[in-house]
Structure formats: structure tokens, C-alpha cells
Design goal:
Layout lengths: L1 H24 L2 E2 L1 E9 L2 E2 L10 E2 L5 E2 L3 E12 L5 E3 L3 E5 L7 E2 L5 E2 L1 E10 L12 H5 L15 E8 L5 E8 L2 E3 L6 E3 L3 E10 L3 E8 L23 H10 L4 E7 L1
Parallel strand pairs: 2-17
Antiparallel strand pairs: 1-10, 2-3, 2-9, 4-5, 6-7, 6-8, 6-11, 6-12, 11-16, 12-13, 14-15, 17-18
Length: about 260
């Protein structure tokens, strides 16, 4: 009887030890996303703002006076479909040089991921009822007549128009809304930015680039003389922004 009891206890200890070893094998990593900006490979920071020095695809000379945008729903997906969604969102504010780096609280398991992506703006579930006090205080809200919720991006500056006059522009991205009928009609204009495959071995830093020039370039050559202000209620303009945004972001490197 004593021998049997000894073997039973030894088995329990062994099983407990094995379970602990297996748990320890799944290590966790912190991830950070750094956001940099360029105009067709020329670096852009807020020190470059307020000076007309860029030329868009339509040939208009322009400056940047404000640039800020939301990224959210950072997702790591494995080949078997398992996903890890990181909590939080980040209002990248180039104008004030704040939130250029985002480190979510949530960690991720190390390993191979077939796809990493984030959302530019908010999806419809998140973009609802002005629930974020920090964004409210940042004057990031969209008026109720345009559907409420929040901006996706505010890009502003001045350009030399076709009368050689320095004129302001406000390239603001929101969810597209058509108010021309009896009821509002919406079209989703947030989009996912695909960063591709990655293997996470340790804490990782993702270097993300935004080419600002692409907002004016592909597939829609943007004519600032026609589309410079009052773009939020302009359904077609919002759809064009969505289309042009598909090539704006790119992954530079992942440092581990």
C-alpha cells in the first residue's frame, strides 16, 4: 500500500512539473509601432510644416500645417486562423510630434504569424457614440449630421491655386456619408493595412512609414483646385480618399 501511494504521489509531481514546463515554453513579447512620414522618400516631420515645398501628382505646390490620424485594431494572425487583437488605438499627431510611437499593453505569444495588420481609422463597431473622452477633448468628433463618430485623418495645409493664390486645403477623412436622399447612406472608408508575415522571437519594434504624397496620387490624381475644402460631406471625395489610402502605408523594418 505504501509503495502504491508513493508511486501515485510521484506521478502527480511529475505531471505538475511537465505542465509547468509546457506553460513556460510559450513566451510573451511586447510590440511597439513607430510611425514615420515622408513625401516620396523625403522625410517629413513637423519641422517641415508651414512652408510650401511639396508638389503633388497634379502639379500643385503645397505645404502641410496639420497631420494627425487614428490607427486601431492591431491584429496578429496565425496560419491556422488564430488571431490576437491588441487593445487600444493611437492618435498619431505629427503636428505636435506626439504618439509617434505606440506600445499596446497587450503582449503577444512569440512565434510565426502569417499576417499582421491594423485599421486606418475605426471600424463601425468602434466608431460609435463618441465614447472616447481623450478623442473628444482633441476635437476629433464628426458632427451628427455627418453620422457622428470620429475622424480618421486630418491633413491640412496651403497650396498655390490656378490663380497663383495661396489657398488653404483641409483633406479630412471620415466614414463616407450621402445626405442627398431622405435617409443617410453610408459607405465604409476605413481600411486595413497589411504588413505581411512576421516571426516574433522577442520584443519587437515595427517601423511604419506613411508616404503623404500617395494621398494625392493613386488611383485618383487629386486636383486641389477642385477638391480642397468641404470634403467631409462630399461622399465621392471620401471614397476617393479611401482608394488613394491603399498605398499610403508600408512596413520598413521589424527590429527584435
Amino acid at each position: 500500500m505504501r509503495k502504491t501511494r508513493f508511486i501515485f504521489i510521484l506521478s502527480l509531481i511529475t505531471l505538475s512539473s511537465c505542465g509547468k514546463d509546457n506553460d513556460d515554453e510559450v513566451s510573451q513579447a511586447n510590440v511597439t509601432f513607430n510611425f514615420s512620414h515622408n513625401w516620396d522618400a523625403t522625410d517629413v516631420t513637423n519641422t517641415n510644416f508651414n512652408t510650401i515645398q511639396y508638389t503633388n501628382a497634379n502639379g500643385e505646390e503645397l505645404s502641410i500645417t496639420k497631420l494627425r490620424y487614428i490607427i486601431s485594431n492591431i491584429t496578429f494572425q496565425k496560419s491556422d486562423g488564430e488571431i490576437v487583437v491588441l487593445d487600444g488605438y493611437n492618435l498619431v499627431d505629427v503636428t505636435n510630434s506626439t504618439n509617434l510611437s505606440f506600445s499596446p499593453v497587450t503582449t503577444i505569444p512569440t512565434g510565426d504569424y502569417s499576417n499582421v495588420f491594423f485599421t486606418f481609422g475605426f471600424n463601425n463597431e468602434a466608431n460609435y457614440n463618441n465614447n472616447y473622452p481623450d478623442l473628444n477633448s482633441a476635437t476629433w468628433n464628426v458632427p451628427a449630421m455627418l453620422g457622428g463618430g470620429y475622424h480618421y485623418m486630418q491633413l491640412e495645409g496651403k497650396f498655390i491655386d490656378n490663380t497663383t493664390t495661396e489657398t488653404g486645403y483641409a483633406y479630412h477623412a471620415i466614414r463616407a456619408v450621402d445626405n442627398s436622399g431622405a435617409t443617410q447612406v453610408f459607405e465604409n472608408t476605413f481600411f486595413e493595412v497589411d504588413l505581411g508575415e512576421v516571426t516574433i522571437n522577442n520584443n519587437a519594434i515595427f517601423e511604419i512609414d506613411m508616404n503623404i504624397a500617395e494621398w494625392f496620387k493613386t488611383p485618383n490624381t487629386w486636383d486641389l483646385n477642385v477638391l480642397n475644402n468641404m470634403l467631409m460631406p462630399n461622399f465621392n471625395a471620401q471614397v476617393m480618399m479611401f482608394q488613394n489610402g491603399q498605398n499610403v502605408f508600408s512596413l520598413n523594418t521589424v527590429n527584435q
